[in-house]
Specification:
Elements lengths: L4 H37 L2 H21 L4 H19 L1
Helix pairs in contact: 1-2, 1-3, 2-3
Length: 88
């Protein structure tokens, strides 16, 4: 356990930041699953909406530092391939 007040504050801040990052990554996984389900169901309008939500959430996570820029690009690329596969 930390003895210094500054370290106690830093530990609390790290925990808050970790939870914030978890919220972003969890939401991204949820939107990814919803996109895959919509594509499997063949519902183009829902798939388009889920794809937009997913891309937006990935961009927000990258902007806030929850994801690395390249990781965000990779996830968006995979989502686009999933979405394109539904149209083909």
């Amino acid at each position: 356990m930390a003895n210094l007040n500054s370290q106690k504050k830093r530990n609390a801040r790290s925990e808050r930041e970790r939870l914030e990052n978890r919220r972003y990554t969890s939401a991204i996984k949820t939107y990814q699953r919803r996109l895959e389900d919509a594509v499997k169901a063949g519902d183009d309008s829902v798939a388009d909406a889920e794809h937009l939500k997913l891309a937006s959430m990935i961009d927000k996570a990258v902007a806030h530092g929850a994801l690395h820029k390249n990781t965000g690009s990779r996830k968006k690329s995979r989502a686009t391939r999933i979405r394109a596969g539904a149209s083909a």
